[in-house]
Amino acid sequence: MQPIALLFALLCFEAKADDGYRLWLKYDPLQDASKRASYSKSINSVYASQESSTISAAVEELQMGLKGLLGKNITLVKSMDSKRGNIVLKIENNEKLSEEGYRIFSQNGNFYISSKSEKGLLYGSYEFLRQVQTLQDLSKINIESNPKIKLRLLNHWDNPNGTIERGYAGASLWKWHELPYVIDPRYKDYARANASIGINGTVLNNVNASARFMTAEYLEKVEALAKVFRPYQIKVFLSVRFSAPRNVGGLPTADPLDPQVRQWWKDKAKEIYSIIPDFGGFVVKANSEGEPGPQDYNRTHVDGANMLAEALEPFNGIVMWRAFVYKADPNGDRTKEAYYEFKPFDGQFHKNVIVQVKNGPLDFQPREPFHPLFGAMPQTPLMMEFQLTQEYLGFATHLVYEAPMFKEVLDADTYAKGKGSTVAKVIDGSLHNYRFSAICGVANTGSDRNWTGHPIGQVNWYTLGRLAWDYSLSSEQIAEEWIKMTLTTQPKAVATIKDMMLKSREVMVNYMTPLGLHHLMGEGIHYGPQPWLDKSGRPDWTSTYYHRADTIGLGFNRSATGSNAVGLYAPEIQAVWGSEENCPLEFLLWFHHVRWDKKLPTGKSLWDELCFRYYGGAEEVKKMQEQWIPIKPFIDKEIFTDVLGRLQIQHREAVWWRDACVLYFQTFSKKPIPEPLEKPKTTLEELKKLVLIYQMR
Ligand code: GCV
């Protein structure tokens, strides 16, 4: 071959770099030749007993996925192919299945995906593909699966101007200025990705909501998106601005007890449903961080939520009313406020209201105890709000797998009805027999080609869906599935990446906020360390409010001798968290002000333990970098290089966090950094300047 022809051939056959766009629905040819051959032999065609747009979406996905994975055309047949090897999508009654549940089994050489509804067929089809992608044995496949939580949502904090609050992966996915005329093909891929993990709703806009979304112009744009999402069984929801009747309705007030205001919302609901008949409902952030709400008119959260609920009720819409409220009280304890505000209202909300509660009582910190409202409102459905976007977890530059963090909260025992009353059972509705159940994650998606900025950030989106469907899945299992579907099936590489992911959350806690510390981050931007921050727009936006460092010790005393936030939990929990001796180290400084020289169960003093954790966290990131390098031959080059670069930033920043926190706390402890730890190479003054540079416009 001529050199030029050889070069041409090489260029043609060079594998195309993976830009991450296809997420976990990559469908590249299976590398395991024997599995591929065996699947190919047993799958020939797909047959659906009924037709609908959702069933077509399922069939299309099966055909596309299997074509890619097996390199074979899977034909859609009008009656079951007698040659066998059919994938049969079948609607049938099965008492063990809920409406969205499915069963997958093999019989007489065919595979059956059955469900009571088209929804289950869609979810079952994605599960079937997952089985192939993760190289499972299909010969005796027999899976029965029902979602544990009914509403499984993403919350987008996206603004009409295309920006995303706390978004680190580019601009908004929604091109409002082009809608409804231009339909970006990405909307369909977004729907496919969500359906593949069981997400069945999306809140399109920021909870700091623009009233514009209540205008006819915007509702038409919303409908254009709803139309794309519909076959994938994804309902759209909107965040609403409580003052919308004033902002866009021309009314002088938004008082929820004012008859004109009430009528305005009723008319608005009617208008919305006339445009989007399957609209899901509203999310409301009211009287929180300066957003308008019923308290502006001396009314309560119940007044506000119930007014909206009554407007939506005729159309089966729901109101997700957020409990993220806190007043600026320098002598108070922000972690108690939502509890005091909402607990007295238990049982007073309208039947289509669900109260949306963040996982912890503060604000998506690297580690928080579960929110004390979970278990405390037996007569009001509560839903979980997790944050996928890494506002406090190093944005899209730090590798942090969030499943262990979510599981820690879901598995936590509230003791509301005795041992075993886990947070998961509160939010799936089973503990208190709630009318409905829901969970949401604040999305980490954006217009970046790979959707989430950090290639491994995709797994946090994936995790939300998988845990919402079945919170009993382990972090290991979810990680393994995602790695195999997205990065590689090479066993050693899978094991290494999984190990890095599983420890990543704890590593981050150690270099950012070990031992129960919290809210030490840079002001406003929420990036980088600023533990010395003692003045801000509000006292509870400083760091000193939370860590309370002094010459005696460190930590916020929330025990009975302090703010008694621990008193909001069940007595069984108080007995553990409320005692400095019994409190697990991960929450020690969340609940206690501990002497610097206090000997901890590790055998070290508080000061030494703190230093070892900060140094250990930073060191672990270095190790993660080293672990990543040998997997190079087994994953896509572009993704390999991208993650490697981000790990380098993460290490630099872990050292930044470590040095800033250790040097700052040392000004109180007055103790040396213990041997053999190396002293920081920078000074505290230099680090203080660095944070200011980060915050410059
Ligand atoms: C959407 C935190 C974030 C805000 C966010 C708020 C909320 O305070 O920093 O950006 O606002 O939480 O959840 O409402």
From TrEMBL:
<protein>
    <recommendedName>
        <fullName>Xylan alpha-1,2-glucuronidase</fullName>
        <ecNumber>3.2.1.131</ecNumber>
    </recommendedName>
</protein>
<keyword id="KW-0119">Carbohydrate metabolism</keyword>
<dbReference type="GO" id="GO:0033939">
    <property type="term" value="F:xylan alpha-1,2-glucuronosidase activity"/>
</dbReference>
<comment type="similarity">
    <text>Belongs to the glycosyl hydrolase 67 family.</text>
</comment>
<feature type="active site" description="Proton donor">
    <location>
        <position position="289"/>
    </location>
</feature>
<dbReference type="InterPro" id="IPR011100">
    <property type="entry name" value="Glyco_hydro_67_cat"/>
</dbReference>
<feature type="active site" description="Proton acceptor">
    <location>
        <position position="363"/>
    </location>
</feature>
<keyword id="KW-0326">Glycosidase</keyword>
<dbReference type="GO" id="GO:0045493">
    <property type="term" value="P:xylan catabolic process"/>
</dbReference>
<dbReference type="InterPro" id="IPR011099">
    <property type="entry name" value="Glyco_hydro_67_C"/>
</dbReference>
<dbReference type="InterPro" id="IPR017853">
    <property type="entry name" value="GH"/>
</dbReference>
<dbReference type="Pfam" id="PF07488">
    <property type="entry name" value="Glyco_hydro_67M"/>
</dbReference>
<dbReference type="InterPro" id="IPR011395">
    <property type="entry name" value="Glyco_hydro_67_aGlcAse"/>
</dbReference>
<keyword id="KW-0378">Hydrolase</keyword>
<dbReference type="InterPro" id="IPR005154">
    <property type="entry name" value="Glyco_hydro_67_aGlcAse_N"/>
</dbReference>
<feature type="domain" description="Alpha glucuronidase N-terminal">
    <location>
        <begin position="23"/>
        <end position="128"/>
    </location>
</feature>
<dbReference type="InterPro" id="IPR037054">
    <property type="entry name" value="A-glucoronidase_C_sf"/>
</dbReference>
<keyword id="KW-0624">Polysaccharide degradation</keyword>
<feature type="active site" description="Proton acceptor">
    <location>
        <position position="391"/>
    </location>
</feature>
<feature type="domain" description="Glycosyl hydrolase family 67 catalytic">
    <location>
        <begin position="132"/>
        <end position="451"/>
    </location>
</feature>
<dbReference type="InterPro" id="IPR029018">
    <property type="entry name" value="Hex-like_dom2"/>
</dbReference>
<dbReference type="GO" id="GO:0046559">
    <property type="term" value="F:alpha-glucuronidase activity"/>
</dbReference>
<dbReference type="Pfam" id="PF07477">
    <property type="entry name" value="Glyco_hydro_67C"/>
</dbReference>
<keyword id="KW-0858">Xylan degradation</keyword>
<dbReference type="GO" id="GO:0005576">
    <property type="term" value="C:extracellular region"/>
</dbReference>
<dbReference type="Pfam" id="PF03648">
    <property type="entry name" value="Glyco_hydro_67N"/>
</dbReference>
<comment type="subunit">
    <text>Homodimer.</text>
</comment>
<feature type="domain" description="Glycosyl hydrolase family 67 C-terminal">
    <location>
        <begin position="452"/>
        <end position="675"/>
    </location>
</feature>
